[in-house]
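Explain this fold:

***
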Amino acid sequence: MRAVSTFSGCGGSSLGLRNAGFEVPVAYEFMPKAAASYRLNAPSAIVIEKDIREVSGEEVNEAAEVEPGCLDLLEGSPPCAAFSMTGK
């Protein structure tokens, strides 16, 4: 099974997906420090530093090397900072 991660952070969700049997060859993360952490945690993945609002479905399919409609999972873990009580 093949997944693409968005809002990838340092790769926690992707680690869970890999532990569940998914291949996660591509991750989208636009914060440079988070992308650098992801690269350290998943060195075989392609990390694309780009705002997800500027990414098309065609680009995701191409990056993951899948035909349209054949990606098993598009995972998104948007940050919860606006809803979190941490730091308040």
The mean pLDDT is 91.
